[in-house]
Amino acid sequence: NAGVTQTPKFRILKIGQSMTLQCTQDMNHNYMYWYRQDPGMGLKLIYYSVGAGITDKGEVPNGYNVSRSTTEDFPLRLELAAPSQTSVYFCASSQTGGATGELFFGEGSRLTVL
Amino acid sequence: QQPVQSPQAVILREGEDAVINCSSSKALYSVHWYRQKHGEAPVFLMILLKGGEQKGHEKISASFNEKKQQSSLYLTASQLSYSGTYFCGTEKDGNTPLVFGKGTRLSVIA
Fold it and tell me: Is the pLDDT confidence value at B29 over 70?
């Protein structure tokens, strides 16, 4: 089973460039999430989705956009990349939300903005 | 509101025990625990719901005191494989995404 697949694993961007981080899950999970992880800061929620066509902001949404046109895919778009967006990005999915929702994480995408 | 984890880091010898704490200033509905090894994704350990239950996972167990808004993760007879960063994630009402603490780095040495 593939689980949650993220691409690319590594990327270097120049300031002002844009890119999309791809996330696909094959577990038919309704809930999907994007987190960013900075050293010593834990995981910060960027955006999440409770189903196809529904997205909502997390703690740190500025500078990012998402869409959820299918159950499987939840891409994260960075517009006008800034050095502050240098981070490791994790996509996760869960069968249910909240209290019973074990999160399954992808392997992460390491982004550097120079 | 981000939960507070303590300690920030701990070093153990194989066979020793450790306790990692997670506390919140807000009422909690559930607490989740994850472990992340260096360069890897976080991996689920357990979920605790309000009601003061305790759960176990191999030699790792946890408790949740909803009145104190605290959870503790207990690692007994630690093994080298326990090394990693442990995160607690909390939620307030059963329908909102998790908010994670900053993590506790655990190093087990021979």
Answer: yes
